[in-house]
Specification:
alpha+beta
């Protein structure tokens, strides 16, 4: 909770309003040194030929692979890791040298990194050279070095799965996510596992969950008369963040150490006038965002959209959809690039969910659909019906998803839990911690008719025509369904949008959960069909049983929240309580059955998440104590404020100092 005190450093008033006016203060020497330029400053999209130049994929990779006798498209088949690793490594090295890179790193995602680890990744940089017999330098990158590495697994959060005397950790290339380079370094996306194969990272469970949903979805589709080889999640991540003057950021210990303001005075002008959303972008911020987009463009990261958000100095980037693993890798790099490029512009990028009190926080809306290997979106009813020749498949899939949300809303809540996001959930910009789904009246009526008639038919989304009565503007059509921004998991036509996800998160766990619970429901329906049940009847029964989780109303309304709670929809207000659901027997059984996480991994991950949560809160408490001791009380003394004010502050400080000691066992 923030305290009204204008004394500490620079107030929120100064920080937000000064930058909102578009003024640029000269960057301090520290700010200028904070992030050396990795690429020249360019406006976004100087030329289309530059897209993906720094990403070893497609035509860029094929040109170098051909020099080593390898066919175009080789990297599309992961089996190259067992047949052509040395030649691919040589091609990577040639490409790297042509682009000024001479160092390689395996790039992986340790657990519990949000808010504390720059870039949220692990990496060890090794120069790509060796010596010949005469001691001369020779450039070299062997296939085995590209494919696998070893590091100290005990120095990362592991929940007890690694220790100093059992420390082996291994990185193994992920061939589904492209190699890329920044500056002088080639980044090779990898997984990170222990000596026993236990997942020490965020990516390994996601890849296992993707396999599970593919297995169960293809199995169910085959039973419904539609044969496909593979199914996978496609996602699009809307990244929100704040940009504030860096010199003022350096005057706020709380922002530097915790990512949010712990105390301070609210600005007299916030978002009351609704004057920020999609307004003209501040020129200082625009220059920064252009450079971010250009660097991402070179890396093959398709940041298509940029705009101002609801709060002062809040912005958003949004990319095209892509495969889940690649999108998450790219999003982590986007957050790092935002941080580093902002420093070059005298700004600080704040990805934390709730950096300022009483204005909107930031989210990372996780838009997700399921696609086949032939490019069919299974959540697009018209596209699916055209490809399969059947209108009966879509309602069966939707029945499985509704069942998954109802049964496993606790895991969805767990996947979005963090101290920052707990400040944000249920406020004006984020749904509450009650996991329902909005389908819209048309889709709800369609599924209601299906569960009653047990017969599939064409889904025709309603549209309406608007005529403004103006000769200059022709009548136009729009969806008949409105948008419900209060729902944590609305269906948006062809996709679901997990709106409750926090802006600073690595969303691997979010998508691990979604893929696993969908796999479980698809498998459940397939089991019943294989046992002799008719698909429509099986799906209708699932909808009947889990209909309560569908809610199209206002999730902010307290009466509606109470009704949903009484109906048995998952509601876990406490992030700490939700994190413990990961190792609940129901969920351990779920993850184990689908080969995503075993019992040891579930319990270890629960411990890691709880440690990260408590550690974040501890840092905030310690920071508040320091700010009171080093800033507030000295300011009161210097102002010669007599009487109860000073004694009251000193007494409050003494009480606050005891609290972290009691909670965390810290010594002051």
């Amino acid at each position: 909770e923030q305290v009204h005190s204008p004394i500490v450093g620079v107030s929120t008033v100064e920080m937000l309003s000064r930058f909102a006016r578009g003024s640029r203060a000269p960057a301090s020497a520290l700010a200028r040194r904070a992030a050396p330029a990795l690429t020249q400053r360019r406006n976004f999209i100087a030329g289309s030929e530059e897209y993906g130049k720094h990403c070893f994929k497609g035509a860029v990779a094929d040109a170098y692979l051909a020099k080593h006798g390898l066919p175009a498209g080789l990297l599309d088949d992961p089996s190259w890791t067992t047949t052509s690793a040395d030649k691919v490594a040589a091609a990577v090295m040639d490409w790297a040298h042509d682009n000024g890179a001479s160092v390689m790193t395996h790039w992986f995602q340790p657990m519990a990194s949000l808010g504390v680890r720059h870039g949220q990744t692990g990496q060890v940089h090794n120069a790509m050279f060796t010596f010949d017999k005469d001691g001369k330098v020779e450039w070299e990158l062997e296939g085995k070095a590209l494919l696998k590495g070893e590091t100290d697994g005990s120095s990362y959060p592991s929940g007890g799965m690694r220790a100093t005397h059992t420390a082996g950790g291994y990185t193994v290339i992920d061939p589904t996510s492209p190699i890329f380079l920044r500056g002088d370094t080639v980044f090779v996306p990898t997984i990170f596992v222990s000596f026993y194969g236990d997942a020490l990272d965020e990516k390994t469970p996601l890849m296992r969950a993707q396999k599970a949903v593919s297995t169960q979805a293809t199995r169910l589709l085959k039973l419904l008369g539609y044969g496909v080889d593979k199914v996978g999640p496609n996602i699009g991540l809307e990244q929100e963040f704040f940009l504030v003057p860096r010199k003022d950021y350096y005057r706020r210990p709380d922002l530097q150490l915790t990512g949010r303001t712990i105390m301070g005075k609210n600005a007299p002008r916030g978002q009351e006038m609704c004057d920020h959303y999609m307004a003209a972008i501040n020129p200082v911020a625009l220059e920064c965002m252009q450079e971010i987009q250009h660097e991402c463009f070179m890396l093959g990261i398709p940041l298509r959209t940029r705009h101002r958000e609801v709060a002062p100095n809040q912005y958003e980037f949004a990319p095209f959809f892509g495969t889940a693993v690649t999108q998450i890798d790219q999003n982590l790099m986007v957050m790092q690039i935002c941080d580093e490029v902002a420093a070059r512009h005298g700004l600080a990028c704040l990805p934390q969910e709730k950096p300022f009190k009483d204005i909107n926080g930031s989210g990372k809306h996780n838009n997700i659909s399921l696609g086949t290997n032939t490019g069919v979106n299974l959540l697009n009813p018209a596209q699916l019906a055209k490809a399969s020749g059947s209108h009966e498949i879509f309602p069966v899939l939707m029945a499985g998803i509704v069942r998954a949300i109802d049964l496993h809303g606790d895991l969805m809540r767990m996947a979005i839990a963090s101290p920052g996001n707990d400040f944000r959930l249920g406020a004006c910009e984020a749904p509450p911690a009650i996991i329902s789904t909005y389908l819209g009246e048309t889709m709800t009526a369609y599924l209601d008719e299906f569960r009653k008639s047990k017969a599939g038919k064409e889904y025709a989304p309603a549209v309406k025509t608007v005529d403004l009565g103006l000769d200059e503007i022709a009548p136009f059509t729009m969806p008949a369904e409105d948008r419900n921004r209060t729902s944590p998991f609305p269906y948006g036509g062809h996709r679901f949008e997990f709106r409750a996800v926090g802006s600073s998160q690595n969303v691997s766990l979010v998508n691990t959960v979604l893929c696993t619970i969908w796999a479980d429901s698809f498998g459940h329906l397939a089991d019943q069909i294989e046992a002799g049940g008719k698909p429509a009847e099986v799906a209708a029964a699932a909808l009947d049983q889990h209909w309560k989780v569908i809610f199209n109303g206002n999730n902010y309304d307290e009466a509606n929240q109470e009704a949903l709670t009484k109906a048995g929809v998952w509601r876990i207000d406490s992030g700490v309580d939700s994190l413990q659901r990961l190792s609940d027997p129901k969920n351990v059984d779920l993850f184990s059955r689908h080969g995503v996480l075993n019992e040891k991994e579930c319990k270890a991950r629960t411990a890691v998440l709880l440690d990260h949560y408590s550690g974040t809160v501890e840092m905030e408490a310690l920071c508040m104590v320091d700010m009171i001791k080093q800033h507030v009380i000295p300011a009161v003394v210097n102002a010669e404020v007599e009487g109860p004010h000073l004694s009251g502050l000193q007494a409050a400080k003494a009480k606050v100092e005891v609290l972290p000691t009691f909670l965390f066992g810290a010594s002051f």
